[in-house]
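Exercise 7. Given the encoded structure of a 273-residue chain, write a plausible sequence.
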């Protein structure tokens, strides 16, 4: 605990701002639906695109639903789904990278060429094709988004793993007869974790933006579920009025991604120093 507090104190102002934003959205994702003043799907106000008031802090949307309640509920899907997707992408990509680094040459060539092929396809186009082919249920959407970002993580993880495999302590472990699984999980992986943290944060930001983009196009979460991108899409008719129903979720997406970027940048600079 003391070391964590010491690390937080060493962060620059931008890093502390990023940390506050990240912790805020994690808390909202965890408890948001439980503190929402109204059920997210209830028609609480007869006036559509109403402004802020004591009863409706962020106004109402195009159907008269409470924007704050829907925002608190939508944040859980955006943060939770993105966190699960980035975990899957990193586990698969890093696992393949370790196989390529410690396995036979042909395994490295096969995996590298396959990932090069996938990464040559723009991520949004790749995700759109998969969503159109297999649908956008919660589970499928999570898997599709995760698969989209496996190649990028694989390239970063492989470059780290290949460099570590050539070091003396790994050669010593190989000389004393350790198997490839031991080399990958005990000798190489622990020394990759810290450099991978920055990539994990960036993948999370990319996934949040991709999920929001898919939802804005109507290919993300389907009603009655809604993430932050869905909230922007369904209230676009209020843009001319400057309705909070469209401004609030857009600001939420921006603050989440900016917060993660600020924290990553500060943490990376701290390690560099």
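Solution.
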């Amino acid at each position: 605990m003391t070391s964590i507090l010491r690390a937080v104190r060493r962060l620059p102002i931008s890093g502390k701002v990023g940390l506050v934003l990240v912790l805020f959205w994690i808390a909202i994702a965890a408890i948001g639906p439980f503190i929402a003043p109204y059920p997210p799907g209830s028609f609480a106000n007869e006036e559509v695109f109403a402004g802020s008031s004591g009863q409706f802090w962020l106004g109402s949307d195009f159907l008269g639903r409470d924007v704050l309640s829907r925002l608190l509920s939508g944040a859980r899907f955006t943060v939770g789904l993105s966190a699960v997707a980035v975990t899957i992408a990193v586990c698969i990509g890093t696992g393949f990278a370790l196989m390529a680094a410690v396995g036979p040459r042909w395994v490295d060539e096969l995996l590298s060429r396959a990932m090069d092929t996938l990464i040559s396809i723009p991520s949004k186009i790749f995700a759109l094709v998969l969503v159109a082919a297999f649908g956008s249920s919660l589970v499928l959407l999570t898997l599709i988004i995760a698969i989209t970002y496996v190649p990028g993580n694989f390239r970063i993880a492989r470059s780290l793993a290949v460099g570590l495999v050539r070091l003396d302590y790994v050669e010593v472990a190989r000389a004393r007869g350790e198997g490839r699984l031991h080399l990958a999980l005990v000798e190489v992986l622990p020394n990759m974790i810290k450099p991978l943290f920055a990539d994990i944060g960036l993948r999370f930001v990319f996934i949040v933006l991709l999920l929001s983009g898919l939802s804005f196009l109507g290919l993300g979460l389907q009603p009655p579920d809604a993430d932050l991108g869905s909230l922007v899409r369904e209230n676009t008719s209020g843009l001319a009025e400057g309705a909070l129903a469209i401004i609030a979720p857009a600001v939420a997406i921006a603050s989440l991604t900016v917060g993660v970027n600020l924290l990553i940048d500060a943490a990376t600079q701290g390690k560099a120093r």
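Remark. The longest helix spans residues 67-102. Students should compare their own answers with the one above.
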